[in-house]
Amino acid sequence: MSGLLLEDRNAVIYGGGGAIGGAVARVFAREGARVFLAGRTPATLDAVAHDIAGAGGKAETAQVDVFDQQAVEEHADAVAATAGGIDVALNAVSVMHDQGTLLADLSLDEFMRPIDGFLRTLFITSKAVARHMGRERPGVVLTLSEPGARLAVGGILGHGVSAAGKEAFSRLLAAELAPRNIRVVGLRPHAVVDAPAAGSYTAELFAPMAAAGGQSVQQFLEDGLAQGTLLRRLPTLAEIAETAAFLASDRAGAMTGTVANLTAGALVD
Q1: What is the pLDDT of residues 236-252, one digit of tens each?
Q2: 93 and 207 housed in the same domain
Q3: What is the 3-state secondary structure (H, E, C) of the chain?
Q4: Whole-model pTM?
Q5: Which of 43, 143, 181, 218 is the most buried (most CB within 10 A)?
């Protein structure tokens, strides 16, 4: 019996050229999955695919606008036709949003940007892949959330509501898809300590708050956010990717409708 967690699985990763999406894709491929990377930027997708191929894995890329429902559905249909089905899907799409602005100064557009952006792409991608999952072959839909889903702090209205919406979406979708042998599991990492170095928009997101405190973004993450966790550190891309591979595998076959807490103890369930 193979020791690979995802041997012969077909995995679609939306936002596969990003920091988290790319890290997950590399681990999925290492664990035996055939990985289909979708996103807006061919160069970043190709870079991840090149790494996977160099390590002996299988990866294919496609330029897909995840806000375009027809394009996403056509891509999912093509993947399923080529590979014989879709076993795992992860939406790792990022939407730039405001953090730090209080209600009095927050515009409606800034409030709605993450809510509409994150939830729209999650709906579109989930609907596209679910048609090709489950029944006699188990399917897994993975989602990404943030601590803002449960934090009670000021200045993250849009961010927090969008994160809570993603977690609610995952729970409700899990109930709907369970009869079809499809699991839905969320991952809730904190800010990721090595994401800025991997090309994430984390640096841009936290730059204003870091500057206000006279810190670099890395100092803000390590000396600020990290100190609010029980472990006094933030999660790494590797930790998130390894957890995603486990959750996508049969070893987590009894898990659905829940969220894996990867906040290093910023939140305690």
Answers
A1: 999 999 999 999 999 99
A2: no
A3: CCCCCCCCCEEEEECCCCHHHHHHHHHHHHCCCEEEEEECCHHHHHHHHHHHHHCCCEEEEEECCCCCHHHHHHHHHHHHHHHCCCCEEEECCCCCCCCCCCHHHCCHHHHHHHHHHHHHHHHHHHHHHHCCCECCECEEEEEECCHHHCCCCCCCHHHHHHHHHHHHHHHHHHHHHHHHCEEEEEEEECCCCCCHHHCCCHHHHHHHHHHHCCCCHHHHHHHHHHHHCCCCCCCCHHHHHHHHHHHHCHHHCCCCCEEEEECCCCCCC
A4: 0.92
A5: 143
